[in-house]
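User: Um, what's this?
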Amino acid sequence: SSVSVTSYYPELDTPSIAAYWEMCKESYGATYDNFKVTEEAKEIVLGGKAAASYVFEGEMAGQALKYRQIIAVHGDKFYIMTYTSTPENYDLHETELQAIIDNFKFK
C-alpha cells in the first residue's frame, strides 16, 4: 500500500474537479483492465479546501489494484492524493490514510 500526492496544472479555462476526473477516468479506462469506479465524487476536505474523493479498481499486468483519489484545487493547480493497495489489503490502512488526510496542509 502507498500514498502519493501529485499536482497537475490544468489546460482548461475554468478548471473543475469534475472535469479533471472525467479526463482521468477516460485515461484509466484505457490503461486498466476491468476498470470500474466504486465511489464517485464523495465530498471531502483536503488541506482546508473542498475536494472530491473517488474510489476505483482495475488490473494492471494481471495484478488487481484498488485506489482512492482525493482531488482538490489550490491556487491554479489540481492536487491529487492517491492511496493505492490490493483489494484485499485496502481497508487495513484506513486509519492511517484518514490521519494523512486530516493533517494535510497546503503551503
